[in-house]
Design goal:
The complex is a heterodimer.
Chain A (H helix, E strand, L loop, with lengths): L2 E7 L2 E7 L5 H8 L18 E4 L2 E4 L12 E3 L12 H9 L8 H14 L5 H7 L11 H13 L1
Parallel strand pairs in A: 1-5
Antiparallel strand pairs in A: 1-2, 3-4, 3-5
Helix pairs in contact in A: 2-5
Chain B lengths: L8 E3 L4 H10 L5 E3 L5 H6 L7 E4 L9 E3 L3 E5 L4 H6 L1 H6 L1 H8 L4 H4 L4 H7 L6 H7 L3 E6 L2 E6 L4 E3 L2 E2 L6 E8 L6 E7 L10 E10 L2 E10 L6 E2 L1 H7 L6 H14 L10 H18 L3
Parallel strand pairs in B: 1-3, 2-3
Antiparallel strand pairs in B: 4-5, 5-10, 6-7, 6-10, 8-9, 11-12, 12-13, 13-14
The chains are: A alpha+beta, B alpha+beta.
Bound molecules: flavin-adenine dinucleotide and FE2/S2 (inorganic) cluster (2 copies).
One FE2/S2 (inorganic) cluster binds next to loops of chain A.
């Protein structure tokens, strides 16, 4: 049983034909081919699948697609505007904030979310902002530095 | 193994009335689905045997926070993020805000709901100890009408509750207190974010002239249900705030809790930490 479900993905209005219980993560990756959103754990622990729904960061592995009817979704593919990288993306490149890259889309979204809520975060606030995102490669220091750099650049 | 998605159903009723119709018509066939932060984990793990869900995420009646002279009333769908943003809660119910801020990471806090935390009924959940000490009441609604019940007593055994299959938890009400309370909340887990508690302690007290006039204590992860520690409270109520009273309270609490060994911790550790937290709570009370 599938349903027709209107929503907005990266500023484009679309109508999905989906099973209501399908994970938003799978719909984004498999139907819309937005493979920037990654699956790490599939159980809300790692943040690799982070997306924005109506401006709030969520784990797309835990969202059944029925719950985004009429919602505005933004994925990592929608973060750069007009071929201009977001300051956070540029900072990750400049500071070596990515290695294998699986955690990176989620880390970037968590940092974008943090800076939108709090343009001048303290070190502790940066750590809290990234606390829901796991990285198995970098040891976190370069990610942390990337976020600090992004704050300075803005 | 992952679940086979097409074997599930998730329907979205347009209103609370229609949601209650569905719940009543086929008693027990449909179960509520809120933020999904507990249910989707089970689904992904192939451990969600029940198949039919009612999506309540859009029901306005279950959202919002209302403040009156007597109460702060939260919709069951209030998220942890919304809890932390509410000024009256920060000022008068700080342990609930602290519990919310220590639940999962931000992405979980944007989706997880207070109602889901209560009805999921994990003894390790972090809001229940705070809700118990604040004497929370729950509104349960079915086609037959609404009833308010005390949260203390809502859990009757491991994952057993007095809510019926045709009922929704719609609101959570906290009585405001004119008295100046002291609050103490500690979650002990393996790391600060995302960790499920090994022990969670919430306590409030009113102290005057070195004497404990009134107090509330509740713990998580130390019994099959989130536990209001009434015996320990009784032992301390009216007593002086001194070393013999603390020693006596430790002995009472030791008999009141029944922690278990599991993957997160041992009974022994939980026992010891609970008693230490009680002592820390009492020592931090200013006379
Ligand atoms: C990574 C991660 C970290 C977590 N960390 C913590 C933590 O630190 N502390 C903690 O306590 N929890 C934690 N949780 C668990 C979870 O986030 C909470 O229990 C959350 O509050 C559940 O709410 P929900 O709306 O997502 O519930 P759902 O998953 O939608 O539902 C949970 C249960 O409640 C029932 N239900 C929901 N709403 C209602 C209602 N209004 N009326 C009747 N029944 C209802 C559902 O039928 C289901 O049985 C974590 C989960 C994840 C994935
Ligand atoms: S894949 Fe969603 S949080 Fe890990
Ligand atoms: S760069 Fe590999 S997981 Fe973070």
């Amino acid at each position: 049983m599938t349903i027709e479900l209107p929503c907005v993905v990266n500023r484009e209005s679309i109508v999905l034909n989906v099973h209501p219980m399908a994970r938003l993560l799978d719909v984004l990756r498999e139907q819309l081919h937005l493979t920037g959103t990654k699956e790490g754990c599939g159980e809300g622990e790692c943040g690799a699948c982070s997306v924005f729904i109506n401006g709030k960061i969520v784990n797309s592995c835990l969202v059944p697609v029925a719950q985004v009817e009429g919602a505005e979704i933004k994925t990592i593919e929608g973060i750069a505007t007009d071929n201009q990288l977001h300051a956070v993306q540029q900072a990750f490149i400049d500071c070596g904030g990515a290695q294998c890259g699986i955690c990176t889309p989620g880390m970037v979204l968590a940092a974008v979310d943090l800076l939108e809520r709090n343009p001048n975060p303290t070190d502790a606030e940066i750590r809290t902002g990234l606390a829901g995102n796991l990285c198995r490669c970098t040891g976190y220091i370069k990610i942390f530095e990337s976020v600090v750099r992004a704050c300075q650049e803005r | 193994m992952r679940a086979y998605i097409p074997s599930y159903q998730l329907v979205t009723p347009p209103s609370l009335g229609e949601a209650l119709d569905v719940l009543a018509a086929d008693g027990g066939v449909w179960r509520p689905f809120a933020g999904g932060t507990d249910l989707m984990v089970l689904l992904e793990a192939g451990k969600l045997p029940h198949k039919n869900y009612l999506n309540i995420w859009n029901l306005k009646e279950l959202r919002g926070i209302e403040v009156t002279a007597q109460h702060v009333t939260l919709g069951a769908l209030t998220t942890y993020t919304e809890v932390q943003q509410e000024k009256v809660l920060q000022e008068e119910f700080p342990m609930l805000c602290q519990a919310a801020s220590e639940t999962g990471g931000l992405a979980i806090q944007n989706r997880g709901t207070l109602g889901g935390n209560i009805v999921n009924a994990s003894p390790a959940a972090d809001s229940p100890p705070a809700l118990l000490t604040y004497d929370a009441e729950l509104e349960l609604i079915s086609l037959g009408g609404a009833r308010w019940v005390a949260y203390h007593g809502f859990h009757t055994g491991y994952k057993q509750m007095i809510i019926r299959p045709d009922e929704l938890l719609t609101r959570i009400r906290l009585p405001r207190s004119a008295d100046k309370l002291q609050h103490y909340y500690r979650k002990v887990g393996t790391r600060k974010a995302q960790a499920i508690s090994k022990v969670c302690f919430a306590g409030t007290a009113q102290v005057r002239d070195g004497k404990i006039e009134d107090l509330r204590i509740a713990l998580g992860s130390i019994a099959p249900v989130p536990l209001r520690c009434v015996k320990t409270e009784d032992a301390l109520r009216g007593s002086e705030l001194n070393q013999p009273a603390i020693a006596q309270a430790r002995a009472v609490l030791a008999n009141e809790i029944v922690p278990i060994d599991d993957i997160r911790s041992t009974s022994n550790y939980r026992h010891q930490v609970s008693l230490n937290l009680l002592e820390d709570f009492l020592r931090q009370l200013s006379a």
